[in-house]
From TrEMBL:
<keyword id="KW-0812">Transmembrane</keyword>
<feature type="transmembrane region" description="Helical">
    <location>
        <begin position="6"/>
        <end position="28"/>
    </location>
</feature>
<protein>
    <recommendedName>
        <fullName>UPF0056 membrane protein</fullName>
    </recommendedName>
</protein>
<keyword id="KW-0472">Membrane</keyword>
<feature type="transmembrane region" description="Helical">
    <location>
        <begin position="48"/>
        <end position="68"/>
    </location>
</feature>
<feature type="transmembrane region" description="Helical">
    <location>
        <begin position="104"/>
        <end position="127"/>
    </location>
</feature>
<keyword id="KW-1133">Transmembrane helix</keyword>
<feature type="transmembrane region" description="Helical">
    <location>
        <begin position="172"/>
        <end position="189"/>
    </location>
</feature>
<keyword id="KW-1003">Cell membrane</keyword>
<dbReference type="InterPro" id="IPR002771">
    <property type="entry name" value="Multi_antbiot-R_MarC"/>
</dbReference>
<comment type="similarity">
    <text>Belongs to the UPF0056 (MarC) family.</text>
</comment>
<dbReference type="Pfam" id="PF01914">
    <property type="entry name" value="MarC"/>
</dbReference>
<feature type="transmembrane region" description="Helical">
    <location>
        <begin position="139"/>
        <end position="160"/>
    </location>
</feature>
<feature type="transmembrane region" description="Helical">
    <location>
        <begin position="74"/>
        <end position="92"/>
    </location>
</feature>
Amino acid sequence: MSTEFSILSATLLFLFVIDPFGNIPILLSVMKGVPQKRQYQIVVRDGLIGLIILVCFLFFGAEFLAVLHLETESISIAGGVVLFVIALKMIFPSPYTKEAGPVMEPFIVPISIPMLAGPSTLATLLVMVKSYPNDQQDLLISVGAAWGISVVILAMAPLLNRVLREKGLAALERLMGMLLLMMSVQMLVNGVRSLFTHTLAAL
C-alpha cells in the first residue's frame, strides 16, 4: 500500500480480507436445504445488513479510535500484523473444519457477521479510517465496491462450487492470501517508516 490513498488498492484490500471465495463452503453448508431462489434473497438481505455495519464503522470509526487515543503509526503496524496473520491462515488453512450445526435459515450470522463485516474487516476499516482521515468518500466507494463484489460472489456460490470445485476454490483463496500477505507487509513498512520519520523529526 502506498502512502497516498488509492480506491483500487483499498477495494482489493477489503476484498481480500472479506475473502468471499473462502466463505463459499461455509455458505453452502448453512444454506443446505434452502431453495435456491430463497438463497439469493437471504444473501441480499444479510448483505445489506453487513453493509450498514461497515458504513457505521466507516463514519464513526475515527471517534472510536480517538477515545482510545491511538496514533496512526500504531494502528498501521497493528493492522499490518493482523492482516499478516489472516494471510498466513488463507495460504495455510487449518486441516480441521468446524462441523455444521443444525440446518436453519441463516439471519445476520454468518453472512452479515462475520463473512462481510467480521472482526478482521472492521479492524482493517478502522486502520484505513485512521490512516486516511480526509478520504472518507473514497473509502466509502472502496467499501461499497468490495461489498458488492463479495455479495455477487456469495450469491453465485452454488454455480462457482460446481465450476471450480474444492481445489479451484482453495487455489483462489491461496492466491488472495498471497496478495494480502504482500499488502500487509507494505502496511507494516509504512507504519515503521512513519514512526521513524516522526521520531527523528522530534529529536
